[in-house]
Design goal:
The chain is of the alpha/beta class. Helices cover about 30% and strands about 20% of the residues. The strands form five sheets. It has a ten-stranded mixed beta sheet, with helices on both faces. Strands 14, 16, 17 and 18 form a four-stranded mixed beta sheet that branches.
Length: about 450
């Protein structure tokens, strides 16, 4: 049974740990969207040491020897960042090169994409989208404009150089004074050399994934960012540049829709968001809320793995949750960071919105239509005991179980596992049924 693991909020839900957990039962882990703007953090025991890995491009299955790791065509690839991650794994005695596969159709992130990212963000000023300046948006822009360069292009030195020259000359007027289009000469050489080093890893990953399935391997699909950063379905324009909802698993890897059998959504027990954009339940309306936000940020280590930026903090939003259930055809939810809420006297979940006297239970599509909207909360009693480190449902405080029950009722989807801390071992996997079952 092939499974997609997808984030249900604005990213940073803890997808890497969940993918790492599920990967034990799968033959291959497939990354299907995004670029090096994603920061997937997981902690694993390597030898006698607990090591924290932050993957920006590498599928989380890399921590299991023998698992195929596939970077699909929907990703935009910075090959130098990928090489850094390979070397980090190798420094801890983990081999990856003989089981890593790159789609020949994957688009490349080039130095000019990073320059364009920085230029456009600085020109937006207060309207900045809060990008990571890793060149992701411009790379997808070139892809959509049919002027991008792909991994397969870089296997042909002169052809690649000519295409890069044309691209650099096209963007020179945008980058302005200080940019030398002739830099394509060195850049094309650098990219040609590093792609040559990956030559044995480059293939038609659509055919590879089909072959693996015929041989009996199960596939695990890993998304970057999350469904509300999806270019089509997210809180536009404060979104990423790819399809980060579950449908992107097909277009971003080359498998057909009938090859997806199960979708698990990763949900943080509260909400966070990096950068600007709609965030109805953000804790920033008064001094007491800001104090609570800071407390949760410190306890939850809510700082971007890629940028180090502090994440905005808020209560879980049930309206967004219901939309994500429908959007992603969820079969189950993996709840993370419930331990961060340990000791809170009251926990809130937004179950609808209010604009004046009008109650709303849907998400406005236009940013302007959010004006005047306030969340309507349902409150839950917090728990005095600790969920941190619990390894069975019976160990959880009763009020924590009540909270899980309530989330299942809001989502109408079973919670299949609960993370109770950052370590691999701090996870309760329910398996069949739901947390409502006795």
């Amino acid at each position: 049974m092939n499974t997609v693991v997808i984030g249900l909020q604005w990213g940073d839900e803890g997808k890497a740990k969940i993918v790492d957990h599920f990967a034990q039962e799968y033959g291959a882990v497939v990354r299907f969207n995004g670029g090096a703007n994603a920061g997937h953090t997981t902690k694993a025991k390597v030898g006698d040491k607990d090591i924290e890995f932050v993957f920006h491009l590498m599928p989380a299955g890399a921590l299991y020897e023998g698992k195929a790791c596939v970077i699909g065509n929907g990703v935009v690839l910075d090959p130098f960042q990928l090489e850094k991650e390979i070397q980090e794994l190798e420094s801890h005695g983990l081999t990856i090169r003989d089981r890593l596969y790159l789609s020949e159709s994957t688009h490349l992130v080039l130095p000019i994409h990073k320059l364009l990212d920085q230029k456009r963000e600085s020109r937006r000023g207060k309207q900045s989208l809060g990008t990571t300046s890793r060149g992701i948006g411009p790379a997808y822009r070139e892809k959509a404009g049919r002027t991008g360069l792909r991994v397969a292009d870089a296997l042909h030195k002169e052809y690649f150089q000519e295409k890069m020259k044309s691209l650099y000359e096209d963007v020179a007027p945008i980058l302005g004074a200080g940019f030398e289009p002739s830099s394509y000469l060195q850049d094309s050489e650098d990219y040609y050399e590093i792609i040559q080093s990956f030559k044995g890893n480059i293939t038609d990953t659509t055919l590879l994934l089909s072959k693996l399935q015929k041989e009996g391997s199960k596939l695990l699909f890993e998304g970057a960012q999350a469904c509300f950063l999806d270019i089509d379905h997210g809180t536009y324009p404060y979104v990423s540049s790819s399809n980060s909802s579950s449908g992107g698993a097909c277009t971003g890897s080359g498998v057909g829709p009938r090859d997806i059998h199960n979708v698990v959504g990763v949900l943080k027990a509260y909400c966070t968001r990096v950068g600007t954009g709609i965030f109805p339940t953000e804790l920033n309306r008064e001094e007491q809320e800001e104090k609570l936000a800071e407390e949760l940020r410190e306890v939850g280590a809510e700082y971007g793995a890629t940028t180090g930026r502090p994440r905005r903090i808020g209560w879980l939003d049930g309206v967004f949750l219901r939309k994500s259930v429908a959007l992603n055809s969820l079969d189950g939810i993996a709840l993370t960071k419930i331990d961060v809420l340990d000791g809170q006297e009251e926990i809130k979940v937004a179950t609808s919105y209010r604009r004046g006297e009008q109650l709303l239970d849907r998400l406005p599509a236009c940013e302007k239509d959010w004006d005047g909207i306030e969340p309507v909360y349902t409150s839950f009693e917090g728990w005095k005991g600790k969920t941190m480190g619990c390894k069975s449902k019976a160990e959880l405080p009763v009020k924590a179980r009540d909270y899980l029950h309530a989330l299942e009722e809001i989502a109408s989807v079973p919670i299949v596992c609960v993370s109770t801390g950052p370590k691999r071992s701090e996870l309760i996997h329910k398996g069949e049924g739901s947390w409502l079952d006795d």
